Amino acid sequence: MHTLTEENYLKAIYRIYESTGDSVSTTAIAEKLQINAASVTDMFKKLGQQKLVVYEKSRGVKPTDKGKKVALQILRKHRLWETFMVEKLKFSWDEVHEVAEQLEHVHSDILIERLDQLLGYPKFDPHGDPIPDKNGKLPAQVSILLSQGKIGHPYRISGVSENTDAFLKYLNKIGLAPGSHVSIVEIEEFDGSMKLSIDNKKEIILSRQAAENLSVVS
Amino acid sequence: MHTLTEENYLKAIYRIYESTGDSVSTTAIAEKLQINAASVTDMFKKLGQQKLVVYEKSRGVKPTDKGKKVALQILRKHRLWETFMVEKLKFSWDEVHEVAEQLEHVHSDILIERLDQLLGYPKFDPHGDPIPDKNGKLPAQVSILLSQGKIGHPYRISGVSENTDAFLKYLNKIGLAPGSHVSIVEIEEFDGSMKLSIDNKKEIILSRQAAENLSVVS
DNA sequence: TACGATATTTAGATATGCCTAATTCTTAGG
DNA sequence: CCTAAGAATTAGGCATATCTAAATATCGTA
Lengths: 218, 218
Known about the structure:
The structure is a homodimer. By secondary structure, chain A is an alpha+beta fold. Chain A has helices spanning 4-20, 26-33, 37-49, 65-87, 97-103, 109-118, 165-174, 208-211, and strands spanning 53-56, 60-63, 143-145, 154-160, 181-187, 194-198, 202-206, 214-217. In chain A, helix 1 (4-20) packs across helix 4 (65-87). The A-B interface holds A 85, 88-91, 98-99, 102-103, 106-108, 110-111, 114-115, 117-118 and B 85, 88-91, 98-99, 102-103, 106-108, 110-111, 114-115, 117-118. Chain A binds a DNA duplex through helix 3.
């Protein structure tokens, strides 16, 4: 069993590795977890000793298969608890992240299996993110970042990769949510911001930064 | 917010204080939490500084109103999660304690309120123990220890105060559970063991020690 | 290719929560 | 009312996970 701290590092490493496919730097993790880079170096060594990551001095870490497996189980728990809160406890999808961050660290395989069963073995969570099965397998899904979308194409929001409260509240305010149907009306060359039509009802301007944190499927 | 460790101390202190009405000793807590007495002294000081207990050197602690309130909220969470696991996830009542020990430390008032609502505001958990409401109020219940029961009297098992896996499994094996109707057939003078009739179906011998860890209501 | 900016690591501290060993306090029996 | 056993505390350490400041490594660009 791993400590809560190790689990949080592994999850952060996994998510960054998945989106870049490259070694994960100390700075990237320091920023994500809001801690000092020196602390990250310490933990990189520790995770390396446990063979959860491959650590090359001054070059960052890559998760091993073992590390990925642990990360996927945490993601599975996080997403199942979020689904539970929305489906059974009537939370709205933008309120559940913080609490799921705590619930994901409860250790009990049988609890999670039963929860999965109660929820009817969902494949995607309320944010549209895929839920790994108990073997760590992700359901098939072709998604791209909205920032890489093409003008005129229709997309459906399938995931939100920046989970800060501020961002989720912002999305809520402008009327964007997982499942929203959007299409790109135009893209501003100079700063990468885009005009978006949401559910064919209204148009908004989205910054490049925001668009880089939204996954969409065609 | 208190640390997980502080919460566990407070819970242990509260439970012992409630059953004895007297100051709680370092040894009692050391034994309950399976740690060294010297460590307990450290924590007694810390909890004292936070006004969660009144600590008198070499004389133990008593929980303050503030400390009781915290302990009751943890008990509330523990018992609601146990109820959830039994009612919604089809666990049996003797399997849920360990996991509830983890879940009780998740911090979210709204989560617990919604869970309470989902469960229909239960007053007692699957072990027969009373669930404090969100203000810390316990439902009325007159219970005594089975060891203090009288020969010939019928009782209903309302609570189990020793939550070790071993004891719960033992109860399961001999066919005792919260809600069981028992009556005391005879009490052995020399060691305080008692012959018990369970649900008018079978008779068993229960040690004094076991009888001291079962609460019953008339 | 060399330099300066940025990233990373090392060294030395800090707080929490635990330990053991030694000391001090409390209390029950003679 | 004194003493010895048991209970509690103190003193000194250890591991985890964090920090700051200083030293070192990497990398893009002139």
